[in-house]
Structure formats: C-alpha cells, structure tokens
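--- STAGE predict ---
source: upstream dedup step, 1 unique chain passed
mode: sequence only
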Amino acid sequence: MKISLGTPRFDIVAIADTGSDLSWTQCKPCSQCFKQDAPFFDPSKSSTYRKVSCSASQCIDLERTSCSTDHSCQYAVSYGDSSFSDGDLAADTLTLASTTGRPVAFPKTVIGCGTFNGGTFDEKTSGIIGLGGGQVSLISQLRTSVAGKFSYCLLPISQAGNSSKINFGSNAIVSGPGVVSTPLVKKSPDTFYFLTLEAITVGTKRIKFTGSSLGSEEGNIIIDSGTTLTLLPSDFYSEVESAMTSQISAKRIEGPEGLSLCYNANDEFKIPDVTVHFTNADVKLKPLNTFIRVSDTAICFTFNPLDDVAIYGNLSQMDFLIGYDTQKQTVSFKPTDCSKN
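--- STAGE serialize ---
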C-alpha cells in the first residue's frame, strides 16, 4: 500500500495488515534495518514531524511502550512470524491518494519511526500499515473521515510485483451481485477482526467447525491480511485434509517445511471445490485460493494446522473484494478479478 508521510510529502510502500494496529516505517538514523529498495524516511526533513510524549494517551494505549531520557515514547512491536520494529512513536501528516485526483492529508497521524527492525520483509516494503481495530490503527485514527470503512482486493500470486488496491470511506462499500456479508464479532483484543466460522465444505463433504482457542461459538476465527496461510486447529484441519486427499487421485509428495499437504505439480488432477461457511456468508474459493505452486515440482494446500488457532489468511482472500464496515460491524466478500478492480 502506498502512502506519503511528512511535509514535504515522502512516498512509502508498506504492507497493509488487518492483524495489527501501529503503522510504522523504517527511519533514519537506523541502528538495524532490513534491506529496502527505496530511501528511508528522514524525520529531520519533515517540518510536521513530532515525537509523542510518554504521558500522551496514544503512548499509554499502546502495549510495550517505554520512556526515553527526553520523555518521548518508544514503541516495540512484534509479529507472529518473529518480525519486529522498535523506535520512536511520533505524529506526522499522512497523505493518501484520492479518487478525485487530489491527495487527502491527515495531520497529526500517530506512526512509528522504526530505527531497529528485522524479520521477513522484502526489499519492496519499508514497514507496516496497521488496519486493525485498536485505538492507534489507521482505521481508528481516520474513523470520522472514512466512516470506519475500508476495502481491499488482493492480487493473485501470479501478479506478484503489482500493487493491490485499497479503498477507504464511501469508495470502500462492497455491493452488487455475488456479495455475501458476515457479522464482525466484538472481542478482546480489539486489534483483531473476529468472524464466526460454521463449517468448511470440501467437494461434497461438509465439516462442522467445533471452535478454536478463540471460542466455540461466535468470533471463533480471525481474518488477517498479514497472515499468508489459513490456519486451523489441528483436529479440524485433519478432517479437512482427509476430505481433500480422498477426492484427489494424485500422489502426495513431501513439500517444503511448514506445508502439510503437497502434490507433484506435473500431475494433472482436479482440485475439489472448497466453500468456507461463515455466519450468513458462504465464500466459495477458487483453486488459486486453495493450492499454490511452491516450486517447479510441488503444489501445496494453503490451509495448515496450528495447535488451537484459527486464522483466515491472505491466500484465501485473493481475487475477492473484501469490505470492512466497523460501524455496521460487517465484513463483505465479493468474487472479483482484482487485476481489473
């Protein structure tokens, strides 16, 4: 996702993440940074950049903050894949492109200026845009301007190198034929967007979801644009996998570490239809959502077991226009060719 920071505007490309709140970018001077193609943001060059004090509510609301000698707020964030960022909590003007052609500026937006960062980031990105539900997330900070609405359309892996689209406000309303909507469930922590998964159908077999560590009833799965695979509790995953293997005639092979079910990519086989049944919303996945080519020889299932956790990851979300309405408390899905959206 492209944004601009500071005055004068400085362009940044960062990963849009619905599973975290703080937006941050790598900053000069950097004590440890991952390699990025674009230059680092230099806060000393921005006339509107201000550090946030330790006593400010934004600092107090954020977990894992500390106070530096100049009484400014230091943040530390980490992610499920062990990526991390530490640095100064600050406020600066954030600018977004607009459908009118005129960029829209949001002064005093709270961001992280990361000076100690690492993890699984590639060179094309310089940080994270936090789209979660917490107080410091971009959605919460822009709430009145965008009416609590945003949508995105994630491009398939085959379109790697192109940028997926994200919309805010009235442009983020997902409507028209094929749209299904499911309630957002308010739970703690407020960062996450909780949905209710009722079942998954593989081909002709419907497997009832009995719940996860998040609960057995409402709000038993998190939808997260920053997690790649769809992760399911081990017992439930086993049932889904056996339904899948019983309907595929090809021979299983050993795939890369971390992927449970793989086949020889050169074998011709039909991938069974997979439908994810959320409350009031049956989301029918395409083969590009359920299997991914990981090498010349291996094609692997994009669902994986993980203890007692349930996360609906971004491979399952590709080629869907997905709209979040935090006022109406709904998430909507519309099958879409995201390269044309």
